[in-house]
Specification:
This protein has 19 helices and 21 strands. Helix 16 packs antiparallel against helix 17. Helix content is 43%, strand content 19%. The chain is globular, with a radius of gyration of 33 Å.
Length: 554
């Protein structure tokens, strides 16, 4: 009995021990499982956004030295955007202001157009109705100081000088000015005001029926400026239009669609955008354009981008205009600005745009590989694309589309392909020409020449048309350029000078005319050496040649 009891008791105790062990194991299992569950829950809650904030807090609280939190956050934003596409960017408050001012249509300043000549600010023009003109600042004046900042002789960059001259509306710029014929510096108290930035650089009649408009950007007031220019030209007899978008890098989308509408019928597709998150948006002409009958030729080149491609693509796909020049940049991404309270801004790609035929003309890019994207222009040049249309690779059928009315073939895959390709003309370029330009010799010569001869030239040639037709570029005048070049270290090379002489003479005449009359004077003189302009003028002046580009299936 005792043995059995002991045995039983011993057995019971083992069972109890085992039972306790089993319960402990279950408890540990429950704890481990609970821990896993908590960890999994924590991982679900620990989003990438929280992780970024967590990393910032760790750095802020534990890093050995003091940290600039603003810099860390800014660099994090920049790094994030670099993983996306080449056009999603961050800009500081200062950079944002520089980016938006040209598109908003004005800035606050004293209202002059200037050029630096031998480290001296030379006034080319006072903006009509601007604060400098009202106070008596005239072309040829040399501004040597603004408030307490010396400008002359200190080798300041143009951007640094603009920061000195610009300022909030209503603030004062006390200027010291040297004027020809005046022994002592003059002092002017100029109150800064809003100064307009124009999109239409020049607008004039090329001949009795053809008008020319050069557009530099698509900004807030671009549509109104173009309409005003077209009304003015139509008043002078314009029936056909050359629209110059070369080097126009784009801007706002709205003016691109509004300008397209001027040439199209009501209901014509202008552009549409697509985004997985934002859906599809279509932009169609809401009214019948008021320039539907005249011939239209659009000039483009490799630097025409974004809104320029919307406009040229809309006219090409609707068989409304002939596109002349070289393949455009290929920027088919739409950015939306997201401003921050400190004045900085993030521009994020939110959709892709397509021309009416369905083309997405964004050139290829690899996420995060900005370097290859930036080298695209160099690669185009090295491949010979700027010299011959045949050097462009053959497009696959998947990139082939057709225009809306005449079903002419057009291609996507990177930019707008012109209807008429025009190669870069290098026949008159030489090292001597390049060195004269690079050293600023031609600009400096023209400024000094105008300073001495302004009144006489204006008397002999009252209007810029008189000047363009009759002002002679003499051998004596060009010898002055050669002599100044020699003085500035540009060795005279007779053979290279003769090769470049026609374009050098044209630039000299254009710059002198621009400084005395207006910006359009330069274009009127120099445009004949622009092969894209020459081709555009030939096409628009010949109705049968123009119509040949609209043959169905061409």
């Amino acid at each position: 009995m005792t043995y059995s009891h002991t045995y039983n008791n011993h057995t019971y105790n083992n069972i109890s021990h085992t039972y306790t062990y089993i319960n402990m194991k279950k408890l540990l299992t429950v704890i481990v499982l609970a821990g896993i569950a908590v960890s999994a829950f924590a991982q679900l809650q620990f989003t990438p956004e929280r992780k970024l904030r967590y990393a910032e807090q760790i750095i802020e609280n534990y890093y050995v030295d003091n940290v600039d939190t603003t810099k860390i956050v800014t660099e994090a934003i920049v790094a994030m955007l670099k993983t996306l596409d080449p056009h999603s960017t961050y800009s500081s408050p200062e950079e944002t202001k520089e980016l938006t001012e040209p598109l908003e249509g004005n800035f606050s300043g004293i209202g002059i157009r200037f050029q630096m000549v031998n480290d001296t600010l030379y006034v080319i023009e006072s903006v009509a109705g601007g604060p400098s003109e009202k106070m008596g600042i005239i072309p040829g004046d040399r501004i040597i100081a603004c408030n307490d900042t010396v400008i002359a002789g200190v080798k300041k960059k143009n951007t640094d000088i603009m920061k000195v001259l610009r300022g909030p509306k209503g603030t004062v710029a006390n200027l010291k000015v040297l004027r020809k014929g005046t022994a002592e510096p003059l002092e002017f108290r100029v109150v800064r005001d809003d100064i307009p930035i124009y999109s239409v650089e020049v607008a004039y009649m090329v001949n009795d029926s053809v008008g020319y408009i050069s557009l530099s950007r698509f900004a807030e007031n671009t549509t109104e400026e173009v309409k005003e220019a077209m009304n003015k030209l139509r008043g002078q007899g314009m029936r056909h239009l050359i629209f110059d978008l070369t080097d126009n890098g784009g801007g706002y989308m709205r003016p691109a669609t509004e300008l397209s509408e001027m040439f199209l019928d009501r209901g014509d597709m202008i552009v549409y955008t697509e985004s997985p998150k934002n859906g599809t948006s279509e932009y169609v002409a809401e009214t019948r354009g008021d320039f539907r009958d005249g011939r239209v030729v659009v000039m483009v080149n490799q630097y025409s981008a974004s809104a320029s491609e919307i406009l040229s693509g809309a006219l090409q796909d609707n068989d409304r205009g002939v596109i002349v020049g070289r393949r455009t940049f290929g920027k088919g991404l739409v950015q939306r600005p997201f401003p921050f309270p400190d004045g900085s801004m993030m521009r994020l790609t939110v959709s892709r745009y397509h021309t009416p035929s369905g083309r997405c003309i964004q050139k290829p890019y690899v996420d995060g590989d900005d370097e290859a994207y930036r080298l695209d222009m160099l690669n185009r040049y090295n491949s010979g694309e700027f010299m011959s249309a045949d050097s462009i690779h053959q497009f696959p059928d998947s990139l082939k589309f057709y225009t809306k009315r005449l079903h002419r073939p057009v291609y996507g895959g990177g930019g707008i392909m012109p209807d008429k390709f025009v190669a870069i003309d290098t026949t008159m370029y030489s090292d001597y020409y390049r060195d004269l330009i690079a050293k600023g010799v031609i600009n400096n010569f023209c400024v000094n020449y105008v300073d001495k001869n302004r009144a006489e030239i204006k008397k002999l040639y009252p209007t810029d048309n008189d000047y363009v037709k009759n002002f002679p570029v003499t051998a004596e005048l060009m010898q002055g350029v050669i002599d100044l070049g020699t003085k500035e270290g540009v060795e005279y090379k007779a053979e290279e000078y003769e090769k470049s002489r026609p374009i050098l003479e044209s630039i000299v005449k254009g710059l002198i005319g621009r400084d005395i009359y207006e910006q359009a004077t330069y274009s009127k003189v120099v445009s004949r050496f622009d092969p894209i302009f020459s081709e555009a003028l030939e096409i628009i002046s010949d109705p049968s040649l123009y119509d040949s580009y609209f043959s169905p299936g061409k």
